[in-house]
């Protein structure tokens, strides 16, 4: 079904569920996962911190994204799923969709917090932006999602 999936992680519970779904899909078809996290510097633009303080904060944001990617890569490796990990830097929607295009991903798997109303207006939605910008299918997974086992075809059916 898929040969290459991008999984966007941010350290949230819904992103963990997205990774769980991606791992299950990957195990079905021997799919390679490309795990990414975006170090988004935009919150720094709204502060009055000195340049030196902003550099330290950006470094902390980047290290946090590296931790998220490393944890995802470790889970995929433990599940015997082929995996690569990368930290991107910039505006999350643009970085995720550009990366997926660049590596010719078949689909993107991303968690969604399911915000609505004023929270969505103020905080935005990376998942919604990815849905709008991506040129490939996008699987969104909510925090409340419970990913059950995916069933494979019995050997007799697969051989027919």
Describe the structure.
With 160 residues, the chain is α/β, with parallel strands linked by helices. It has one domain: HUPs (Rossmann fold, 3-Layer(aba) Sandwich), CATH 3.40.50. It contains seven helices and five strands, in the order E-H-E-H-H-E-H-E-H-H-E-H. A five-stranded parallel beta sheet has the order 3-2-1-4-5, with helices on both faces. The chain is globular and about 40 Å long.
Helix content: 40-55%
Which runs of at least 5 residues are low in confidence (pLDDT < 50)? 118-123
CATH domain topology: Rossmann fold
Structural shape: globular
Count up the domains: 1
The first-to-last residue Cα distance is 18 Å
**What class do helices, strands and sheet pairing give?**
alpha/beta
The CATH architecture: 3-Layer(aba) Sandwich
Assign the CATH class: Alpha Beta
How many helices? 7
Indicate the radius of gyration in whole angstroms.
17 Å
- The counted number of beta strands is 5
The overall average pLDDT, rounded, is 82
Strand content: 15-25%
How do the strands line up in the largest sheet? Answer: 3-2-1-4-5
Q: Could you give a short account of the major beta sheet?
A: 5 strands, parallel
SSE run: EHEHHEHEHHEH
What is the CATH homologous superfamily assignment?
HUPs
């Amino acid at each position: 079904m898929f040969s290459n999936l991008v999984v966007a992680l941010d350290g949230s519970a819904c992103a963990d569920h997205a990774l769980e779904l991606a791992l299950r899909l990957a195990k079905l078809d021997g799919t390679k996962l490309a795990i990414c996290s975006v170090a988004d510097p935009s919150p720094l633009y709204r502060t009055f911190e000195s340049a030196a303080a902003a550099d330290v904060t950006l470094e902390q944001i980047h290290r946090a994204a590296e931790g998220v990617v490393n944890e995802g890569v470790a889970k995929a490796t433990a599940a015997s799923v082929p995996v690569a990990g990368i930290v991107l830097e910039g505006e999350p929607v643009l970085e995720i969709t550009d990366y997926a295009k660049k590596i010719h991903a078949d689909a993107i798997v991303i968690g969604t917090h399911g915000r609505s109303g004023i929270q969505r207006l103020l905080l935005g939605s990376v998942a919604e932006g990815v849905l709008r910008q991506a040129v490939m299918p996008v699987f969104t997974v909510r925090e409340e999602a419970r990913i059950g086992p995916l069933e494979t075809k019995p050997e007799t059916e697969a051989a027919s």
